[in-house]
Amino acid sequence: MLQARFASILQAASRDDFRDEIVRFSRGLGFEIVSAMAVFDQLPGRSEFICVGNQPSGFGAVVDGTANERLDPVMQHCRRQSVPIIWDQKTYTSVGLGNLWEQQAQFGLCTGIAMAMHLPDGRHFVLGVERDQALPAQPAELMRMVADLQLFATCAQEAGLRVLSPDRGAGAPPPKLTPRELEALKWTMEGKTAWEVGAILGISERTAVLHVNNATHKLNCASKHQAVLKALRLGLIH
To answer: Could you point out which of 48, 154, 162, 230 has its C-alpha 20 to 30 Å from the C-alpha of 8?
Structure first.
């Protein structure tokens, strides 16, 4: 299910390790700048933001705190949706925020791709890559970049939430999954469909889906892919 070239992010043991891995990925994708942000909702209307990346020195002082920063169309998209957004100057000028784009463009953030993952219990993970060059004109090449970002984000969110806020959930016992739930996750890790998992385990496709969904819920994850990653980290499957 996972490409080995992305799986190394799962081994990140510190914020510095995590930063090095996302920078390596971003540059391999063709983007010099990358940022990752973990968001934890607290009281209504209040959230904790923890960011890491390699944005140029001075970027935050210029862009953060501007009157229009809270209206940034890329961030507004990520707050509401999980599908990636491909952005450039037109993304900002179309909503009357060309000045905001010009402010960040002077630091090399001219085009990019960003996405968010919204998880249970008010947890969110945002990953964005940026550069000063135009995005590929060929749709196939652009879609490959988006697909790689989505796959990497699935791996990175598990490590990011763990190392950026290590005190959350510290000491909590691992969830108890049934043998069937563990078997269903293990075969999902191998890339099997629900129908194939059912055939292997001698159960119906619907029951296989139920086992995977139950495991995903117990692991406090939003998708089966995230559940597999967390089960691997916890040593529940190998």
So the answer is: 48
